[in-house]
Amino acid sequence: MNGDKAQELGLLFVRLFRGLEGLLGDDDVAARAWLITPNTALRAKPLDMIQTVQGLMEAVLYADSRRAKFCPPMGSPPAFLLVRLGQVENHI
To answer: Which of these, 16, 32, 22, 18, lies nearest to 68 by C-alpha position?
Structure first.
C-alpha cells in the first residue's frame, strides 16, 4: 500500500471515530460496544466491516448520517446524553 492510500485510510478511521464521538461523547465503553455488536442497519458488526475499505466507507457514511440525524441544535442536550437516556434508536 502506498503512502497516499494509507493516509486516506487513516483519515477514514479518524472520521469514523469522530463520528462515534459525536454520537456517544467520550464514552469509550459505548464506542467499543458499537463496534462489536451486530448493527441491524449495517447488517453486520462494524468491527468486521471495517476490515475492508468498502466496509470502512459504509461504516463512516453510516456514522456520519446518524450523527447528522441526532445532533441537536445549539442549546439542546448533547447527542450522547440522548443516547444514554434511551431517547435515540438503539441501533446507533
So the answer is: 22
- Angle, helices 53-70 vs 3-24, to 10°: value is 30
Cell numbers describing residue 84: 444514554
Q: How many residues does the chain have?
A: 92
Provide the whole-model pTM: 0.69
Tens of pLDDT, residue by residue over 34-79, are 999 999 989 999 999 999 999 999 999 988 888 766 555 555 555 5
Give dist(CA 7, CA 27) in Å, integer: 26
Q: DSSP string of 25-42? A: TT-HHHHHHHHHS-BTTT
CB atoms within 10 A of CB 81: 13
Do the Cβ atoms of 59 and 51 come closer than 8 Å?
no
In sequence order, the β-bridge partners of residue 39 are: 44
Q: How far is the CA of 26 from the CAs of 1, 74, 81, 84, in angstroms?
A: 32, 19, 11, 12
